[in-house]
Prior knowledge:
By secondary structure, this protein is of the alpha+beta class. About 15% of the residues lie in helices and about 35% in strands.
Amino acid sequence: MTLADDWSYMDDRSTPQKLVESYYYAISNKFYVQAYSYFQPDQAPANFQEWVDGYADTDSVEVKFGTTNPDPGAGQIYWALPVALAATQTDGSTKVFTGCYEIHMTNLGMQTDLPYQPMGIVSAKLNETNEPFSQVKPGSC
Length: 141
């Protein structure tokens, strides 16, 4: 699908949840460059193509969130965001994962030099589960 086929678009970094929703929107639509941009620059996977290849069998992703609160300190803000994911594969099967995303943003008042650094993904720790997505709940981080 291209944007010309379906003019739906998501790119929202206003909250940790919207950031991760945007990330999986991009993955589901094969917009890998957009998805990769959601990582903090110094935390992105080292090999872009290997990272893309890791999603070769992924058709779409649905995500649920647990509760998170900001953890500010020394001009930096971090969130530990609990998630549950249903990754529908290209063969129609579904893999379910639970885990946490670590999200970071430099306090806006501390950003005085270009380029602006938006909220971004630092890391993700996900584990596959056999529970159905309808029954799985995001835990705590």
